[in-house]
Design brief:
With 321 residues, the protein is mainly alpha-helical. It has two domains: 211 residues, Rossmann fold (3-Layer(aba) Sandwich); 72 residues, Tyrosyl-Transfer RNA Synthetase (Orthogonal Bundle), CATH 1.10.240. Helix content is 56%, strand content 7%. The protein is built from 14 helices and five strands. The strands form two sheets. The chain has a three-stranded parallel β-sheet. Strands 4-5 form a two-stranded parallel ribbon. Strand 4, helix 8 and strand 5 form a beta-alpha-beta unit. Helix 4 packs across helix 7, helix 4 runs parallel beside helix 14 and helix 10 runs parallel beside helix 12. It is globular. The two termini are 30 Å apart. Bound molecules: tryptophanyl-5'AMP (TYM). Tryptophanyl-5'AMP binds next to strand 1, helix 1 and helix 7.
């Protein structure tokens, strides 16, 4: 049976980029193998310095993932820091990781350019991510395109370990769905917390409406034809609508006579509708926090037992035992 693994940082509210880039593909993959999905709270320490906020975001990810369809009966959901073995593996991996490999990573440059402190933890972030993946003998890692380079680094580190110590790790494959690899934000750039252009999951109706109305558009007048190929509204609508509905919106763009405000309203209604059932499940979980605790406790136990056996193999392989 193949093993599927992915993580998500509790550094703020989840958004449509996280949902379509990672959560939905991850939820679909649950059927195809043994899935391990985790809340990357060690990673989030590189940017979140408020303990109460970190706790709240971690909790929220668990609730949101379960609301969106993660099935705890078949999938292991856990907090990264409940398996501290990962920090030991990260150290071992870091002793074979060339500095140059990390210096080439764009996420460090990108994050520091957006005001995150250039700490050693931020620089070494991809090594911890490699440890996350290799600690569970993962075969497949569903992620958005922005994580592709980190998967390449993981494979490079695994190869280096195998060359140095004999085969210790299998090489994981990224699973990147082309049509949702990069979900656009309100301004047409990649949707990202650090760009302040997100549409968050489970916003109250009023806030969602206001957010959607804030999608940046050009000044084409209502009567004029509009190019659906150049529109963030259409790009986002494609994520939710059926092929027929998409073709219909594209035709109305080209025909002219409809303003961007009307298209935004249509998108807003579609989003609201799409998440309605999940919203109900979320309301239930928020009212029953003990159900989430049970899932996280069981997840930690299962993840830890897999991690312990892989780490034993690695310790023996490198001569620590
Ligand atoms: P994070 O928390 O930034 O994002 C979680 C997932 O959401 C995807 N994503 C997007 N996909 C498409 N379009 C977007 N606009 C968009 N924004 C975010 C990301 O690609 C990611 O898959 N380093 C990881 C967390 C992590 C991890 C791991 C992932 C830690 N260890 C091990 C996989 C395996 C991160 O920061 O994701």
């Amino acid at each position: 049976m193949i093993r599927i693994l992915s993580g998500i940082q509790p550094s703020g509210a989840l958004h449509l980029g996280n949902y379509f880039g990672m959560m939905r593909p991850a939820i679909e993959l649950q059927e195809r193998g043994e899935a391990f999905y985790f809340i990357a709270d060690y990673h989030a320490l590189t940017s979140v310095r408020d303990p109460a906020a970190l706790r709240a975001h971690s909790r929220q990810i668990a609730v949101d993932f379960l609301s969106c369809g993660l099935d705890p009966a078949r999938t292991c959901l856990f907090r990264q820091s409940d398996v501290p073995e990962v920090a030991e593996l990260a150290w071992i991996l870091s002793t074979v990781t060339p500095m140059g490999l990390l210096e080439r990573c764009h996420s460090f440059k990108d994050k520091t350019a957006h005001g995150i402190s250039p700490t050693h933890g931020l620089f070494a972030y991809p090594v911890l991510m490699a440890a996350d993946i290799l600690l569970y003998d993962s075969d497949l890692v569903p992620v958005g395109r922005d994580q592709k380079q980190h998967l390449e680094v993981t494979r490079d580190i695994a190869v280096k370990m195998n060359e140095t110590y004999g085969t210790l790790f299998k090489l994981p494959e990224p699973h990147i769905r082309e049509e949702v690899a990069t979900v656009k934000g309100l301004d047409g750039q990649k949707m990202s917390k650090s760009y302040h252009n997100t549409i968050d999951l489970f916003l109250p109706e009023k806030v969602l409406r206001k957010t959607i109305m804030g999608i940046v558009t050009d000044s084409t007048p209502v009567e004029a034809p509009k190019d659906p190929g150049q529109s963030t509204i259409v790009d986002l609508y494609r994520l939710f609508a059926s092929p027929g509905e998409i073709a219909d919106m594209e035709a109305r763009f080209r025909a002219g006579g409809t303003g961007y405000g009307d298209f935004k309203k249509q998108l807003f209604e579609r989003i609201l509708d799409y998440f309605r059932l999940m919203q109900a499940r979320r309301d239930h979980l928020l009212a029953h926090p003990e159900e989430v605790d049970v899932v996280l406790r069981a997840g930690a136990e299962k993840a830890r037992s897999v991690a312990a056996s892989v780490l034993d193999r690695v310790r023996a392989g490198v001569g620590l035992r």
